Amino acid sequence: VCEFEPGAIVSDACASYSTLESLNDxxxxxxxxxxxxxxxxxHYRLNLYNKKCPxxxxxxxxxGNRACAVNTLENEEDIPLVWRAHELGRLEGPTAQxxxxxxxxxxxxxxLQGKLGENxxxxxxxxxxxxCDERDFCVPDDEGASAKGDYVSLKDNPERxxxxxxxxxxxxxxxxxxxxxFSKPARPAELSSGNTPLGxxxxxxxxxxxxxxNVLRERSVQASVQSAIAQGGSSGFDPIEFxxxxxxxxxxxRVVSGMHASISSHLCWDYLNQTTGQWSPNLxxxxxxxxxxxxxxxxxxxxxxxxLRAVGxxxxxxxxxxxxxxxxEQDQITKAMVLRLASAMPSGAAIFDESVxxxxxxxxxxxxxxxxxxxxxxxRIMDCVGCDKCRLWGKVQTAxxxxxxxxxxxxxxxDSSKDPPLRRTELVALLNTMDRLSHSLSAIKQFRRMIxxxxxxx
Length: 458
Ligand code: FAD
Description:
Blueprint: H1 17-37, H2 39-42, E1 43-46, H3 85-88, H4 101-109, H5 122-125, E2 150-153, H6 167-178, H7 188-191, H8 206-215, H9 219-231, H10 247-269, E3 271-272, E4 279-280, H11 283-291, H12 294-313, H13 315-320, H14 328-343, H15 364-381, H16 388-410, H17 424-454
Antiparallel strand pairs: 1-2, 3-4
Helix pairs in contact: 1-14, 1-17, 8-9, 9-12, 10-11, 10-12, 10-17, 12-16, 12-17, 15-16, 16-17
């Protein structure tokens, strides 16, 4: 039994595929209370309206439904203290001026050493506002001294069915999957051969399956990965042929497809019946989008394993982090909750072993840069989403995955001195993305139960 207790050791034997679900059953209420009940994690600052879609004119893709709208917080007093401009310490702290770009660079190279007084944590004083740290997998959305951030209560704007569909959303998903074109498009001759690649997932490829198994160190996840690969997933877009042996490209695809699957699960779970006006789970929606596509569900689990690993890896970072609102008691509670969560993650690489990626001699760095740049582009594509609420959650989740990738590939568990800084928004996005995945796992479990009941399966 995996108990969700601080310091609980989740052994390999414990971390089976079904145990990911049991672990989730235990984590879900706790994680959800962090994202819903703490000011720090229930609010997000982002640039929701002021960025133009950098890839195409987005006028046709706008969603006019009420369900697409986001309520932003216009009044300063509605913004929790921890997020209010003067409390953020974003521009200046108790004794420090907001540093200019040059100073920020210097500070990154050489962290602050007691200059601000013994009890003032760095994160209380300055939020780095660089355009982009070179190690980021995402384009920061809220940064820059002149950036007009929108404050949004994530709790009051739940991710659910909005009615955003058609050519607009199709174009965005297409653009996102196109970022996965590390490889050349299939030649027509190959398309008609017996080895025709299936959609974006490529043909059955057991060499790649073996490599993936090294990333997912856990038997039933492996079984599911292998069966998904054997079936060949399909993105439904232009067939793309993958380099046969490139694990990293497959991981990229799985992250994107898993995110897509997670979004689908939420909109099917919280679905608006437009005839009755009632919000309720829509089983047909689930069957059409997920149940009949085990590869998509497997990609969602893949993302959950990836995020669990990343959250486990920020334990030290959280221990050192200052949650600096004006209410030290609340800060203490928030910190204790996150620390407890991070400590309960399966230890080491038990579930997800990122160390097998970007390892190939000669190509590692270039491939990693390529991977990073492509993921950054996915985050830019979010400005093309023509529905405010979808854009909000699309941005939160791409930032969450971007943060997870940064933690996985740039953080050293044993020596945090060279770890890149994590912005407040990155931490919030990471935990909210974990919460979204956790909710997806719960929803899928309940959808399966509904199918069993309908079909009379005991
Ligand atoms: P889509 O989901 O649009 O998928 C397009 C094609 O992609 C499918 O035909 C299929 O071939 C392929 N595909 C589908 N799922 C996967 C997968 N997991 N992996 C690989 N390939 C796949 N709608 C809401 O109601 N609420 C939201 O909060 C919301 N958020 C969104 C956020 C973003 C960033 C985007 C781009 C869209 C969002 N949408 C949201 C719209 C929603 O995702 C769908 O696009 C819409 O419901 C239309 O669905 P569809 O059946 O046409 O297929």
